[in-house]
Please model this.
Amino acid sequence: APATRRSTMRTEGSMQGKTQTAKDPVCGMEVVPEHAAATSRFRDNTIYFCSTRCKEAFNANPAQYLDAGR
Model:
């Protein structure tokens, strides 16, 4: 089976503490899950998006974004 890229979560330090972010697979922007403009479920994973436009692009062809290795 081909390898797929899952939504990557990482923690970034700041003066206020640590914030977890996820990478929008369409545009590559780091998104704070609690402030994501949109989400989708794909292969039992929650995918976070910076905008509804990125979500629509992803939903039209998820494999294009997950298999691209962005």
About this structure: Strands lie at 9-14, 17-23, 30-31, 38-42, 45-49. The first helix runs from residue 52 to 60. Residues 30 and 57 are 17 Å apart (CA to CA). The radius of gyration is 12 Å.
